[in-house]
Design a protein that fits this description.
It contains ten helices and six strands; from the N terminus they run βαααααβαβαβαβαβα. By secondary structure, the protein is of the alpha/beta class. The protein has a six-stranded parallel β-sheet, sandwiched between helices. Helix 1 runs parallel beside helix 3, helix 1 crosses helix 4 and helix 3 crosses helix 4. The chain is globular and about 60 Å long. The chain binds magnesium ion. Magnesium ion binds next to loops.
Length: 274
């Protein structure tokens, strides 16, 4: 029999579960922003503009979560020599993405960041609160960009966030484990079930690495195909199969289904085994 889950109404019992979200492709559609900046940065240096399928194929390898490194890798595979200096590539990328000083006033930004449709609304997080689910964000996005979408666009106040530079890049699970530990309450006991919703193989691998690092905790890998794939049933299905093969416990139709899916998985786990 599986152990019973803590009851949300029990005072001091901590959250029933912890749901952590990736940001890009999960909270916002970055097809016209980060992904476009990646393609334009590669084009800037090589004259070749990688198409979305080419970027997806690279991302499916599970180790190119950082878009600066992904840009450089595509240039390397395209045969560019010599490769640009990393810092100057970051500056070119940033010019496309922010179009202004990342540390400055977002109202002055003129780059692709202005074109990021949201994939959830604020009400989603109020629902999680009502369900006794703690939530937060673990993302490889730059901190000014992550704070911009969470605070300015979604209106969340001081959201729990691990962003680029706060922890090693995914699929290293350090950031995920740290935030889960903080949200889960005590250091003495393992936190409740920790679920992570991401849109890439690297996100799924982050959960698998977290399991290895904390064998006594319970982790769930939730995955969703990023929105740019939703237009093609075939591309989407093949991408979702890749997420399942990597080890996703559930593939969601959209980010808004996260709470319902998590509830299903929690109740399945709390039912006595036949
Ligand atoms: Mg993502």
């Amino acid at each position: 029999m599986s152990p019973a889950l803590p009851n949300a109404s029990e005072p001091g019992s901590g959250p029933r579960a912890i749901l952590l979200f990736d940001i890009d492709g999960v909270i916002r559609d970055v097809a016209g922003s980060y992904r476009r900046a990646l393609a334009e940065t590669v084009h800037h240096y090589s004259g070749w503009r990688p198409d979305p399928a080419c970027i997806d194929a690279l991302k499916e390898e599970g180790r190119w979560n950082n878009d600066w490194e992904a840009s450089l890798e595509l240039l390397r595979r395209h045969g560019l020599s010599p490769l640009p200096d990393f810092q100057s590539l970051v500056a070119v990328f940033s010019g496309f993405y922010f179009g202004g000083d990342p540390a400055g006033d977002p109202a002055q930004w003129r780059g692709f960041i202005g074109d990021e449709p949201l994939l959830v609304d604020r009400a989603c997080f109020a629902e999680l609160d009502r369900a006794g689910i703690a939530w937060g964000f673990v993302s490889g996005a730059e901190p000014p960009s992550a704070r911009y979408v969470l605070e300015r666009r979604l209106g969340l106040v001081d959201p729990p966030l691990v962003a680029m530079g706060d922890a090693p890049d995914k699929p290293d699970p350090t950031g995920l484990l740290r935030l889960a530990g903080i949200l889960g309450g005590t250091a003495a006991a393992p936190p409740a079930t920790v679920a992570y919703l991401g849109d890439t193989v690297a996100d799924v691998l982050t959960v698998r690495n977290a399991r290895r690092a904390r064998p006594s905790w319970r982790f769930l890998s939730l995955a969703v195909a990023p929105p740019h794939l939703h237009a093609s049933a075939q591309a989407r299905s093949s991408y979702e199969q890749g997420l399942k093969r990597a080890g996703a416990d559930a593939v969601l139709p959209d980010t808004g289904s996260a709470l319902a899916t998590l509830e299903q998985l929690l109740s399945a786990a709390s039912r006595p085994e036949p």
